[in-house]
Amino acid sequence: MELAAAASEPAGPDQPVREARLEARIWYATLLTRVRGLQPAERLLTGEDPCGEPGAEPVADRPHRPEAQAALRLCEAEIHLAGGRLTEAATAAETGLRLAAQAGNRGLPPRGHVVMAVCSVRSLDLTTGLLYANRLRDAALLGQENLMPGQCVWAAAQALEARDGMESVAHLLKGIVHDEVLTRDLLVSQPAAAPWLVRAGQRLGDADLAERTVRTMNRLAVMNRSFRSVQAAAEHATGLYARDADALEAASERHLDPWARASALEDASRVRSARVAERDRAVDLLRRAAGAYLGAGSSRDLARVQSRLRELDDHGGRPTRSRTRVSQLTDTEFAVAELVSQGLTNGRVGSQLYISPHTVAFHLKKIFRKLDVTSRVELARSWNRILVEERDDHPRESGPDFLVRSAVAARQAG
Predict the structure, then answer these.
(1) CB 47 within 8 Å of CB 56
(2) What integer pLDDT is reported at residue 320 of this predicted model?
(3) Which of 44, 198, 338, 407 is the most exposed place for a label (fewest CB within 10 A)?
(4) Distance between CA atoms of 139 and 106, rounded to whole angstroms?
(5) Nearest-angstrom CA–CA distance, 142 and 345
(6) pTM for this structure?
(7) Cβ 338 vs Cβ 408: under 8 Å
(8) What's residue 408's pLDDT?
(9) Which DSSP string do the residues of 352-383 spell out, in sequence order?
């Protein structure tokens, strides 16, 4: 990190900031983003000194060759994703990928593919998520240059798990935790990764996966004491492994990453909900998790949390609704319609939303009636059109659920 910071500075005291090497500034901003130093990273890309001193004109406004512009846009995409701004992240990633293709650069695309895969999964656009997961797989099979292999495997695993369940990616997760290079790249760069792997180990009944993740994350935390994001990830993973709700709540306060913060709150709620005396606290934590997921633009996770809220609290997660067709759907019905429209079976939809296939079928009957469709095929064919039409017809509609739905509709229509 210190070397990257030094390289991003002007070569001499009389050289203006604008002449510092662009590539070094982008790389330093990338490293800052990985440890969630988002504000100094953004200042680097706008031409300011990372310590807050005013600099030159924004880097993005200067003419650069396509390869440099591609790296710049992909770095911006990673910053937006880390900040929970999924729409901006996807837009910047798509621009960066286009510029990288124009420049014939094969080393940069994995960065954009990771951003697109994660954004798509979190916004319930599984079709696009799987598209980029396959591109990450193809790049690996072709042996293309990749400076972030662990993050690539994790992004692909998230997309595949969303479609086929955790069992389908067990071999990928084993490969991560048994490879030191993959593990180090992933756990330091993605504060939500270690808890995600521990959660996967618990769901799979794979104690070795969970234990290895916790041990490695804690070792990395000892080696990187100055990085708050690494400390938060270690506390989160350890608290989840030990089922320590207090540690999980503490981790949620320490996390700088909004999605990781939301997942820590959800994990803490799950632990507390197992104890009848702490049920009210569990509901409060889950409501906070819902708000955090909303802030991070993650409609997939928000739908799951709202479904869980209704189990814990009869009034949890039910915002006021208008009379539009889509707004007549409950949050669970909306999530079911979104997933069914992407071709998932009732079983796969149920596993994503933690409800039974029978309950999915029950919701589908109500969805068909409310949307005036008669089959899954008709729903899949008309779903995106309905979303876009209602977004255009009701631009002023408010409420947290509609904000998430608008983001999903925009991505699907884009």
Answers:
(1) yes
(2) 38
(3) 407
(4) 9
(5) 32
(6) 0.75
(7) yes
(8) 41
(9) HHT--HHHHHHHHHHHHHHHT--SHHHHHHHH
Which of 133-171 are b and which e, b meaning 16 or more Cβ less than 10 Å from the residue's Cβ?
bebbbebeeeeeebebbbbbbbbbbbbbbbbebbeebbe
pLDDT of residue 240: 97
- Residues 327, 402 contacting (CB under 8 angstroms): yes
Q: What does 172-211 look like in DSSP terms, one character per residue?
A: HHHHHHT-HHHHHHHHHH-TTHHHHHHHHHHHHT-HHHHH
| pLDDT of amino acid 164 | 84
DSSP 333: H
What are 412's two structure tokens?
């699907």
Task: Compute CA distances 146 → 23, 29, 88, 91, 405, whole Å.
Answer: 17, 18, 24, 22, 34
Q: Whole-angstrom Cα distance, residue 114 to residue 29?
A: 17
Domain 326-413: give its CATH architecture.
Orthogonal Bundle (1.10)
Give the position of tokens 């539009």. 324
DSSP state of 10: -
CA atoms within 13 A on the CB side of 158: 28
Q: Is residue 312 exposed (0-12), middle (13-18) or buried (19+ Cβ within 10 Å)?
A: middle
Helix (H) or strand (E) segment spanning residue 123 = none
Q: Which two tokens stand for residue 22?
A: 């662009």
* pLDDT of the residue at 16: 46
- Residue 300: both structure tokens together: 């997939």
Segments of the chain scoring below 70 in pLDDT: 1-20, 47-64, 141-146, 313-324, 388-414
- 88 exposure class (CB count in 10 Å sphere: 0-12, 13-18, 19+): middle
From residue 46, alpha-carbon distances to 10, 40, 52, 366, 371 in Å are: 15, 10, 11, 50, 46
What pLDDT score does 393 carry?
Answer: 53
How far apart, in whole angstroms, are the C-alpha atoms of residue 234 and residue 214?
Answer: 7
Which pLDDT value is given to residue 145?
A: 60
Alpha-carbon distance 222 to 190, whole Å? 17
Distances (CA, A) of 236 to 243, 268, 395: 10, 10, 39
Is residue 117 classed exposed, middle or buried when 0-12, 13-18 and 19+ CB atoms within 10 A define those classes? buried
